[in-house]
């Protein structure tokens, strides 16, 4: 079940909201927990037991770490923490990377070990990182161990952010788990944010995704330069509006239930460096790796060589986190190298260039990175990069490129504008001019959000194309 579906919006969500708000406050977490398990079971019922095992394991380990610390036995506490990390990484490695490891061994040594063919549990990368961050924070003293299994289970399985993030660290919502107070303003803001997310996903990401599918399905050797660039811009917009749309929906849903999740995107395509890009893209993931891997490895505190090592480790793991394929490893290391170059080689010179030049530099690197990311086969990705630079002699443009561009010209203008702060600034100016006319502002907002939602639903009624890119992560 995906958020951008009629089933979710008109059956599941109304049912959970009605029962949640009818329930006494003291059992609202139980209601949310039960519906979240049902939501997860809709996609793969048997993996609910895997999630329940993960919840119970880390809940128990958190309590044991807390007790060991009360007894001032840090060695025992550390052993419990190691059990949690080993089990979580082991579960993730088995379900997500077993076939990748076996396939790599077969390719390297010519063996014929059969693949396991295990279906990937939905959202396993997200909820595994959440449970690990909880036990680590309990050990570090950054948060107290949760005493209620129901409350902890609600945190791990909460359907608004379960399948696509943002990755929510327990310490950021610990107080909200026990004494949040839902209110009308948050509920309305949550509905509006959810509608914006639906519009991003359904009207923008889905439609530009069709253009990418058309171009990427062509043999790379037959694609002229302009078409190749049009295609990778389409993919860049698809993945941004798909993922940021889901983050908007998750944040909006959280507000409906009284939770305040941290932002996950901050206009990444206006970045003026790759370092800035990763402060703006998938913020919760970048923050997780920085706090739980980069800093524990020593960060930048132990000399330049170890800092280089730490950055490459973090970005190698970042690539692997996204998928069990060598292209993701290369994608992670690709960004690690550019971050190192900005830090140690040309970062100080980059800052002296005009802002527009820096934005073009950043976007160019990001687009090449998306090619590596988009193709599971390194060979296909390399072939597409070759097409970007005219390596097949197909010329710069052809009639089909012009046709595809004109068919998507209006959408592309909307996407370019939507990826910047321009719409927010224009809306802010309009609201400023209408200051003192609150009812006019309310009506304009209601019409705007309502129109987005109505058109999105109308699109979904007949739509057969509604992919979700981050399910595989």
UniProtKB/TrEMBL annotation:
GO cellular component, one term: plasma membrane
Keyword Transferase listed: yes
GTP-binding among keywords: no
Membrane spanning residue stretches: 6-23, 30-57, 77-95, 107-129, 149-168, 223-241, 353-375, 405-427, 439-461
Entry superkingdom: Bacteria
Biological processes per GO annotation: alginic acid biosynthetic process
Membrane topology: Multi-pass membrane protein
Protein's name in the database: Alginate O-acetyltransferase complex protein AlgI
Organism: Murimonas intestini
């Amino acid at each position: 079940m995906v958020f951008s579906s009629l089933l979710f919006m008109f059956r599941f969500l109304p049912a959970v909201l009605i029962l949640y708000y009818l329930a006494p406050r003291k059992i609202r977490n139980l209601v949310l927990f039960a519906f979240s398990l049902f939501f997860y079971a809709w996609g793969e019922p048997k993996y609910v037991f895997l999630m329940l095992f993960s919840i119970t394991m880390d809940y128990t380990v958190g309590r044991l770490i807390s007790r060991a610390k009360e007894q001032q036995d840090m060695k025992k506490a550390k052993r419990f923490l190691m059990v949690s990390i080993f089990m979580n990484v082991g579960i993730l490695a088995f379900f997500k990377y077993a076939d990748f490891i076996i396939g790599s061994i077969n390719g390297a040594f010519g063996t014929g070990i059969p693949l396991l063919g295990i279906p990937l549990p939905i959202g396993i990368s997200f909820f595994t990182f959440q449970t690990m961050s909880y036990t680590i924070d309990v050990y570090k003293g950054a948060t107290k161990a949760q005493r209620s299994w129901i409350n902890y289970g609600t945190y791990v399985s909460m359907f608004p952010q379960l399948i696509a993030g943002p990755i929510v660290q327990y310490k950021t919502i610990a107080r909200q788990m026990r004494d949040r107070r839902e209110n009308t303003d948050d509920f309305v803001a949550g509905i509006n944010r959810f509608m914006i997310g639906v519009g991003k996903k359904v009207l923008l990401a889905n439609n530009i995704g069709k253009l990418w599918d058309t171009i990427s399905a062509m043999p790379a050797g037959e694609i002229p330069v302009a078409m190749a660039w049009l295609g990778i811009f389409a993919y860049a917009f698809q993945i941004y509006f798909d993922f940021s749309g889901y983050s908007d929906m998750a944040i909006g849903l959280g507000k409906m239930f009284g939770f305040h999740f941290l932002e996950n995107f901050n206009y990444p395509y206006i970045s003026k460096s790759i370092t800035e890009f990763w402060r703006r893209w998938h913020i919760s993931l970048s923050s997780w790796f920085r706090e739980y891997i980069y800093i524990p490895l020593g960060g930048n505190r132990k000399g330049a060589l170890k800092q280089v090592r730490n950055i490459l480790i973090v970005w190698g793991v970042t690539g692997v986190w996204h998928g069990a394929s060598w292209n993701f490893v290369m994608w992670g290391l690709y960004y690690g190298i550019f971050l190192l170059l900005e830090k140690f080689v040309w970062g100080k010179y980059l800052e002296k260039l005009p802002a527009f030049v820096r934005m073009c530099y950043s976007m160019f690197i990001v687009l090449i990175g998306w090619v590596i990311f988009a193709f599971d086969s390194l060979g296909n990705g390399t072939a597409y990069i070759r097409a970007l630079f005219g390596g097949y002699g197909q010329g710069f443009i052809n009639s089909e490129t012009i046709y595809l561009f004109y068919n998507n010209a209006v959408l592309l203008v909307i996407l370019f504008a939507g990826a910047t702060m321009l719409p927010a600034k224009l809306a802010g100016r309009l609201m400023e001019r209408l200051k003192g006319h609150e009812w006019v502002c309310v009506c304009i907002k209601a019409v705007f959000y309502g129109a987005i939602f109505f058109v999105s639903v109308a699109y979904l009624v007949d739509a057969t194309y509604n992919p979700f890119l981050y399910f595989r992560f």
